[in-house]
Amino acid sequence: MSETQQPGPSVYNHRLASDLMAHADVAARRGDDQAAATLWRQAGDREAAALSTIPVSRPRTRGLIAVSAVACYVAAGEQVQAYKLANKYLAMGDLPEFASKQIRGMVEGMNT
């Protein structure tokens, strides 16, 4: 990418989500669970936004981002949102099997 080219929305949102996840980890390590949950939720929002702009011709990337989005909401303690997003992503039917399996596993983990 040249210096004048800006990253696309999926790359921008994913990079921002990655930064938010790193900050959430730091907040959790220092015992600030409320800040960590907020940061995880924001990261989930960004990953979901990233996924919405990734073409279906990139199934592996879509799968990785879908898993990450759901995992962020789980980490935030946002089980209702994680469950809704998981069901939405599984219903799309275009995720690779590894991603569908991981998302189903997270849903099962929330139900126990």
Describe the structure.
This protein is mostly helical. It has one domain (9-110). It has 5 helices and no strands. It has helices at residues 9-29, 33-51, 59-75, 79-92, 97-110. α3 (59-75) packs antiparallel against α4 (79-92) and α4 packs antiparallel against α5 (97-110). The longest helix has 21 residues, at 9-29. The protein is flat. The model has no long low-confidence stretch (mean pLDDT 93).
Offer a quick outline of the entry.
Helices cover 76% and strands 0% of the residues.
Distance between the termini: 45 Å
Number of strands: 0
Number of helices: 5
- Poorly predicted runs are none
What percentage of amino acids are in beta strands?
Answer: under 5%
Radius of gyration: 14 Å
Order of helices and strands: HHHHH
Structural class: mainly alpha
Largest sheet data: none
- Give the overall form: flat
What's the helical proportion of residues? over 70%
The domain tally reads 1
Mean pLDDT: 93
Secondary structure topology:
Blueprint: H1 9-29, H2 33-51, H3 59-75, H4 79-92, H5 97-110
Helix pairs in contact: 1-2, 2-3, 3-4, 3-5, 4-5
Characteristic key phrases:
5 helices
